[in-house]
């Protein structure tokens, strides 16, 4: 049977947050005939194996943390049964499936044609889509968007690495591991280590250096490492994984051979879960970028300019596949701006995503928030003499009823530049940081000065008030 041919104004390859935002803007608001193609579940990494189920799991871990702390407030809570991880997991899956359905309805409401299949480019104006039933469709498009996202990496040079899982596999776990090792130092490893620990797993975090979250301000790095160790997470510094092997007679268990700071000559650990969180790669396999002449960098990311243009006219790209800022809200914002620019008329000819001062949060225990430059980056950019730092460290009132050894830290830092003390960086660690940073992020984005923070009357008693009362 000959391939079916279709034509459209806009072909979007990738049904994640950025691609769908762009497709819906192009079709729903500007009337462009749009086709969206996705080979997996709608919503991409964020909805299915990222932000959404992660935050639901973080909520569960936070509840477990609160139950532990309740005794300090006089509550006597008796556990009549252990945490029902399996029931929780299935309810979380149901929630994600509802979101998948909502995404499909939104596409229909905005008159975006949706094809479930795998697309690859044939040239700069056409692509072939292999549908689920094996049939093929050739699509001719005036403009094409590549928004295929990324996938987690597994080491290729460690024997037995395939016995581990990645962040994708985390959401497939039917039972809570008894002993888990996470390898990695980024936000995924840190978030999942915190969740495993507070839900009851013996948790080991293997990192290559002395700290994790190494792209964050040093205050964040040092504080969260100390806090995780205080909580009982076992951190293996300067670690190298050598091999992993199955344990005979113990189904589901494995043994990892490694070296670290305390065992430079080597050691082993037996695990029923190993999770690799060593970075992500762009989802570009079999995409046909070479056929269309689309340039990639040395890591495989699609090269784009400030307007999401690739090296080929009328082919665009955004989101994780570009590797700029791998955050869902950034991809959504970029998608909407691109949809406006391509189809919204002359008034949107310069529309683009502003990648400066994008706030981000790590859902660790406690939460971490950051926007702008770290102190070292600010010093490098402006010179030490032109940078002034305000910082504070205190115990949040929530912990006033607890023994000293149970008290978690709260630390804030505001990085200012020049005589006018423009705020070029803000870094916060402590309970409530995620909700707090969204508001302060607006202020930083607007170019606030330290005096603007000072002019705001504090809300008392809160932790956030410390950001407007720093001396």
3D architecture notes:
- The protein is α/β, with parallel strands linked by helices and 471 residues long.
- The protein contains twelve helices and 20 strands.
- The protein has helices at residues 17-29, 44-49, 51-69, 85-109, 167-170, 187-199, 218-231, 289-292, 328-343, 375-382, 433-445, 450-455; strands at residues 4-13, 34-38, 113-123, 126-131, 136-146, 150-152, 179-183, 202-206, 234-236, 240-246, 254-260, 263-271, 273-276, 280-282, 315-317, 360-362, 368-372, 387-394, 410-417, 422-429.
- The protein has a five-stranded mixed barrel with strand order 1-2-3-4-5.
- Strand 16 and strand 17 form a beta hairpin.
- Helix 3 (51-69) packs across helix 6 (187-199).
> Residue-averaged pLDDT, rounded?
97
List unreliable stretches of 5+ residues: none
Radius of gyration, Cα only, in angstroms?
A: 24 Å
Query: Which bin fits the share of residues in helices?
Result: 25-40%
Write the SSE topology.
Layout: E1 4-13, H1 17-29, E2 34-38, H2 44-49, H3 51-69, H4 85-109, E3 113-123, E4 126-131, E5 136-146, E6 150-152, H5 167-170, E7 179-183, H6 187-199, E8 202-206, H7 218-231, E9 234-236, E10 240-246, E11 254-260, E12 263-271, E13 273-276, E14 280-282, H8 289-292, E15 315-317, H9 328-343, E16 360-362, E17 368-372, H10 375-382, E18 387-394, E19 410-417, E20 422-429, H11 433-445, H12 450-455
Parallel strand pairs: 1-2, 1-5, 2-3, 5-15, 7-8, 7-13, 8-9
Antiparallel strand pairs: 3-4, 4-5, 6-14, 10-11, 11-12, 16-17, 17-20, 18-19, 19-20
Helix pairs in contact: 1-4, 1-9, 3-6
